[in-house]
UniProtKB/TrEMBL annotation:
Top-level taxonomic group: Bacteria
Lineage start: Bacteria, Bacillati, Actinomycetota, Actinomycetes, Propionibacteriales
Protein source organism: Nocardioides pocheonensis
SUPFAM superfamilies, A to Z: DinB/YfiT-like putative metalloenzymes
Name of the featured protein: DinB family protein
Any Pfam family hit: MST
Length: 164
């Protein structure tokens, strides 16, 4: 869906964020669980790992940073690296469902704040909701691009060559 072209600032920002969220999900949907786990780079970056990482990031910024919940309460690792880990029982369907749930909660949390209201429960100090939204747009767009490239490589590698 194309972001809203003419609307107030908040509507546009939220639409850009939701569009990026959807694009990241689209990059993993249709992949098998095996394909979504495939590592094509030395890091822990996989299509499914990208989605798990942004699920963690959504919770860190909205659930913790804005709403004031604790990482312990949410079962979140304190560091970034474990957020990329894909476990044997992680499936595309389950990780997508969890991401959608976390995003719905993030939308609900953010709805109670104005763009200039401060997120005070984060390590960087007070930041506006506007900054948080823009940061998440940047973060998710970057990772959606990574996921698109990985998906293309996976599908190209799995393609059956047609004889001429």
């Amino acid at each position: 869906m194309e972001p809203v072209l003419i609307a107030d600032e908040r509507t546009q920002i939220e639409q850009f964020l939701d569009t990026n969220r959807d694009e990241l999900v689209e990059a993993v949907e249709g992949l098998t669980d095996e394909q979504a786990r495939r590592r094509l780079v030395p890091s822990l970056t996989t299509p499914l790992g990208l989605l798990k990482h942004v699920t963690w990031a959504e919770q860190v910024w909205f659930h913790v940073g804005l709403a004031g919940r604790t990482r312990e309460e949410l079962g979140l690792p304190l560091e970034n690296d474990p957020s990329w880990t894909v476990h044997e029982d992680d499936t595309v369907a389950a990780v997508v469902a969890e991401y959608r749930r976390v995003c719905a909660e993030a939308r609900e949390i953010a709805a109670a704040y104005a763009l200039d209201d401060l997120a005070v429960h984060n390590r960087r100090g007070p930041l506006t909701l506007r900054w948080l939204y823009l940061h998440m747009i940047e973060e998710i767009a970057r990772h959606a691009g990574h996921a698109d490239i990985l998906r293309e490589q996976i599908l190209a590698g799995d393609a059956v060559e047609v004889p001429e």
